[in-house]
Amino acid sequence: MQGVDVPGGIYAHIAGIDIIRDAAGEFCVLEDNLRVPSGVSYMLENRKMMMRLFPELFSEYRIAPIERYPEVLLENLRSVAPTGGRRPHRGAAHRRRPQQRLLRARLPGAADGRSELVEGQDLFVRDEAVYMRTTQGAQRVDVI
Predict the structure, then answer these.
(1) 3-class SS at 137?
(2) pLDDT at 9
(3) Most distant CA pair in the chain: distance in Å?
(4) Through-space distance between the first and last CA atoms of the chain, rounded to whole angstroms
(5) DSSP letter assigned to residue 82
(6) Residue 103: CB atoms within 10 Å
(7) Rounded to an integer, what distance in angstroms lies between the CA atom of residue 144 and that of residue 43?
(8) What's the distance, CA 138 to chain centroid?
(9) Within 10 Å of residue 14's Cβ, how many Cβ atoms?
(10) Which sign does the torsion angle of CA 26, 32, 38, 40 carry?
(11) Which residues contact 29 (CB under 8 A, 6 or more apart)?
């Protein structure tokens, strides 16, 4: 990415890091993804259940809140759209559709129709810009 200018000077907006502990007790990075972490909706639902089942953990220990994650994600995506830009678009890999739907339901501005759920086959590149196929014709996409 050296010499490549990106909007806002931000090269990685989102990182999903899966950490495990190996047989020797050492922490290791199992996987890292520079995209929307595929398990984010599971994380949000797990936290909600943990708070319901074990409220004492959250009062006894300093556990960072995650409730604003969907809002922060959307703010992050919108921050790189051009002024007056279009709405962010989220991909819909088939095995992750339930997670995408849950996250979409929690994203402010997503449920109100200002954000699309698209698949790779809906997108194409023309003149160094990404477009989405729609029933009204090609629409430029600023943020994916």
Answers:
(1) coil
(2) 79
(3) 57
(4) 18
(5) P
(6) 22
(7) 21
(8) 24
(9) 14
(10) positive
(11) 17, 18, 19
Q: Is 135 helix (H, G, I), strand (E, B) or coil?
A: coil
Residue 89 and residue 132 in contact, taking contact as beta carbons nearer than 8 Å: yes
User: Parallel, antiparallel, or unpaired for β 139-141 and 129-132?
Assistant: antiparallel
The β-bridge partners of 21 are 27
Contact 137, 101 (CB under 8 A): no
Residue with tokens 């703010």: 75
Q: How many CB atoms lie within 10 A of CB 31?
A: 11
Of 96, 140, 138, which is closest to residue 119 (Cα–Cα)? Answer: 96
Shortest CA distance to 90 belongs to which of 112, 114, 72?
Answer: 114
In degrees, rounded to 5, the angle at the alpha carbon of residue 79 between the alpha carbons of residues 75 and 140 is 105
Q: Is the pTM of this model over 0.90?
A: no
Round to whole Å and give the CA distance between 106 and 44: 10
User: How do residues 1-28 score in pLDDT, each as one tens digit?
Assistant: 788 888 777 777 777 788 899 999 999 9
Using CA atoms, how far apart are residues 58 and 64, in angstroms rounded to an integer?
9
